[in-house]
Specification:
The complex is a heterodimer.
Chain A: H1 8-29, H2 33-53, H3 57-81, H4 89-92, H5 97-118, H6 134-144, H7 146-167
Helix pairs in contact in A: 1-2, 2-3
Chain B: H1 3-23, H2 27-52, H3 58-88, H4 104-115
Helix pairs in contact in B: 1-2, 2-3
Classes of the chains: A mainly alpha, B mainly alpha.
């Protein structure tokens, strides 16, 4: 395909990608919402490993802290507070699973064919890449992306206030 | 490392997320599938950042912004799911049809006519 052979980074990324995709499949097929949330942890952990292979150290640790530490815990809270059905497939999945499978396969297959045909010669030189450690990413954020960063903080504040207002019990 | 490897993993992850959003009935499970799709986008951003050797690290910074938006989305989304659960005692998205432009009794009558 290209002039580059298979390197250690290819093998490690491939293994992590297989783990990530397998646990993602279990997330969308598990019969128990709690199990699905725990498979989500495995999927995000493997993705953090993928980011490390791609020299994005800071994004990998943010992935672990925010996704695994906060978002999955929120999901577990939501599943438990809504008393999600456990063990009954027909309660958890809708009846249009075949259509959903066709749509998912079509989306994934089309994207795969597109990116492989467009970037089949692309090669990431992980040994000479600009490593995205905390210093590099922090410099980039506060030098080039200050305004979006501030907007993101305002967005988070608005979401926080909105979530509190939505979940407040109103007096009857 | 071959760029297409990362892109194929990302595309398949997105496809799995699409399947999850369409096939799941529980609102929390749908939110999990949405997270899978957001992470597929993040993997693409990080892979292209490493491929361009971007000195601005735009891809990685965008990935961080996506994480921020995902956190906000999950917070508000779960608040909505909990509010709906408190009002209607269900977390199944196909039972929350009070805003839909159709009358469930009319639908039931039509189904009875088809069956009869």
């Amino acid at each position: 395909m290209t002039r580059h052979g298979v390197t250690v980074a290819d093998v490690v990324f491939g293994l992590l990608g297989v783990v990530c995709l397998a646990s993602a499949l279990l997330v969308v097929t598990a019969r128990n919402v709690i199990h699905a949330a725990l498979w989500l942890v495995a999927c995000f952990g493997a993705l953090a490993g993928c980011y490390l292979v791609l020299t994005a150290e800071f994004v990998a640790w943010v992935q672990v802290l925010i996704y695994i530490g906060a978002i999955v815990v929120l999901m577990l809270f939501g599943a438990m507070l809504t008393r999600a059905p456990i063990g009954r497939l027909q309660e958890l999945d809708s009846h249009n699973r075949p259509v959903a499978a066709v749509a998912g396969l079509a989306a994934g297959g089309t994207l795969c064919a597109l990116v492989v045909s467009a970037f089949k010669d692309g090669y990431v030189d992980v040994h000479h890449a600009a490593v995205g450690d905390g210093k590099a990413v922090g410099t980039a954020i506060f030098r080039f992306f200050v305004l979006p960063f501030e907007l993101a903080s305002v967005l988070l504040l608005a979401a926080l206030v909105g979530a509190i207002v939505l979940s407040r019990r109103t007096a009857h | 490392m071959h760029l297409s490897l990362a892109l194929v993993v990302s595309a398949l992850l997105f496809g799995i997320g699409v399947y999850g959003v369409l096939a799941r009935r529980n609102a929390v499970a749908v939110l999990m599938a949405v997270e899978l799709m957001l992470n597929a986008g993040n993997l693409d951003l990080v892979a292209f950042d490493a491929w361009w050797r971007d000195t601005m690290h735009a891809g990685q910074v965008f990935a961080l912004f996506v994480v921020v938006i995902a956190a906000a989305e999950v917070g508000v989304g779960l608040a909505i799911v909990l509010a709906v659960f408190r009002l209607q005692d269900t977390a199944a998205i196909d039972e929350v049809t009070s805003l839909a432009d159709r009358d469930p009794r009319v639908l039931a009558d039509a189904a009875a006519e088809v069956d009869g």
